[in-house]
Amino acid sequence: MLALLSSLFLAALASAACETADLNEDPASPLRKLPIYDQDGSGTCYAHEAATLVNFELAKADKKPRDFVNPLFAAWVRHYEDTTFYGSPDNTGGFSADVIKSLKKMKYCPQHLVEGCLIDSKKIGKMNDAKLVHFLEKLWENYSSFSTGDAYQEAIDKTVKEDDWIKGDPCAARALAENLKARHLEAISGNEVLKYFFDGCPASQRNELDIPDPEASSDGPLEAVRKRIDDALTRGAPVGIAICAEMLDTPDVRPLRWQDPTGFSRSSRGNLKKPCGNHAVTVTARRELDGKCMYMIRNSWGADWHPKNGRCACITVGGTYEPECKKAIFAKEYLGCWYSDEDLMSNVHSTTIIPEKK
Amino acid sequence: MRLALLLLLLASSQAALAADGCKDHRVFKIEGVDQDLCFVESSGSWVSRACVEQTGAGSCEAQALLKKAPQVARLSEKERQGGKNPGSVLCAKLNGTVAYAKLESGSEITFCEASDHSVVDCNALHQAWSSRHRR
User: Fold this and answer.
1) Count of A-B CB contacts under 8 Å
2) pLDDT tens for residues A199-212?
3) Do A23 and A52 fall within a single domain?
């Protein structure tokens, strides 16, 4: 009898701790106004996560999608324009909190102006944002490796013949490379080419990003991480997290070594088992499913991302929100997939949260 | 009478689609061009409607890519670095070309275009690959 009562008590406690907080459910939620991004083969997850967190705040303030932050622009500002950081020739890898700080410092060029700056080159190269950046980076990398003869021509040949991502449409890529040369943009890094493009969006046309500084944390035991995520969701805010990408296919993989429960640096590479492809995603919901506390991960792998046999939320073709989409055929867009409390918390390296405005 | 005939034609067309493995079809704007795609339930994939209807499921280039996807070796840490979409990485490794679709909502989906211009969604490639490479 006592055992039954105590198990009932424990179940009630677990249920109370897993109160539903789903930022996707309300059709008027800011999250429902944001696109699900697809970062394609670019390594810019951190910038996509930052754009999701920032655009959530912008949507809350009734800004329209044309005034949202563009993830590619966000990556470029953080890696190139804001010299507090690296002035890097490429945009692979980074931290979302740094991106948000850079966007606040440098101001941001809204989506519709970014599109205007890139449209000609994207048309010539038949490329999306992600592929354009990759092409510029690869071309520069190959150019830098040739020192004699017609280095630029050799770089074009190498890029269109050898790069997996570019060789699918070599004619368009060549056309873009020639176009860059005609504009005297052939001997500079990808990010310097982007600077030339983004000169079309001068400071006078940029928007202030009037949001609080992000709170980033990569330390602490499991309970502390859970509390940060729970507190944010309960007040209606999404949470940026860093995880190993492998977890999305294999939820019970444990890339973090078993840690000192009193606290540790989760982001330290020494604490990671290999392989671990660092990835940044956003937690947007918590709810109990079949007696288990689950958290929803919003990814940047497109609106049809859903792992095989995964439990994922969707907007149906009828326009309704289903926390668990029963059949792929009825899904118009997947909004995210559910991972258990235990699987998620054991995999999170760091969290990024935009606090409430005071 | 005309309406009944029309309904009959529609019903038989739908039945033919289902028999060919096309459980539903939807138009996606891929790289700015409308493309009619079929949902093939067995693989959970969206593939070009033409190849499913004309030659039967499994015989277009895009579906050949889908069959080859599990044979691609485990992706290295570098290939996953920065959270690259594994479906896109697999598409490039299979010599396909990644093509973007933008939905009305502004959300994005990537497709893998094969040499015969048929397409399959990158998520299906990822699913096919990951079912063999789960750790």
Assistant:
1) 142
2) 999 999 999 999 99
3) yes
How close B92 gets to chain A, by Cα (Å)?
Answer: 5
Complete DSSP assignment for A84-142:
TS---S------HHHHHHHHHHH-B-BHHHHHHHHHHHHHHHT--HHHHHHHHHHHHHH
The model's confidence at residue B6, banded by pLDDT at 50, 70 and 90, is: very low
Residue finishing a domain among A174, A205, A236: A205
Which pLDDT value is given to residue B4? 55
Which of B77, B79, B97 is facing A168, going by the closest CB pair?
Answer: B97
The CA distance from A84 to A72, in Å, is 19
pLDDT beyond 60 at A154: yes
Of B24, B110, B135, nearest to A38 by CB-CB distance is: B110
H or E element at residue A239? strand A239-244
Residues of B in contact with A65 (CB under 8 A): 106
What average pLDDT does the segment B118-122 reach? 96
Q: Which residues of A touch B106 (CB under 8 A)?
A: 35, 65
Give the domain extent around A116: 111-205
Indicate yes or no: CB of A131 within 8 angstroms of CB of B98: yes
Q: Are residues A267 and A326 in the same domain?
A: yes
Among residues A321, A320, A323, the alpha carbon closest in space to that of A338 is found at: A323
Distance from CA of B4 to the nearest CA of A (A): 27
Identify the pLDDT of residue B12: 43
Cβ-Cβ contacts under 8 Å, A167 against chain B: 95
Residues of A within 8 A of B122 (CB-CB) are: 302
Section B61-82 average pLDDT: 90
Q: Confidence band (pLDDT; 50, 70, 90) for B11?
A: very low
Same domain, A278 and A291: yes
Query: What pLDDT sits at residue A103?
Result: 97
Predicted confidence (pLDDT) per residue in A90-145, tens digit: 777 789 999 999 999 999 999 999 999 999 999 999 999 999 999 999 999 999 88
Residue A95's closest chain B neighbor by CA? B82
Paired with B30 in beta bridges are B33, B101
Residues 6 or more apart from A37 whose CB is under 8 A from it? A48, A51, A52, A71, A300, A302, B107, B108
Closest residue to B77, CB basis, from A42, A131, A277:
A277
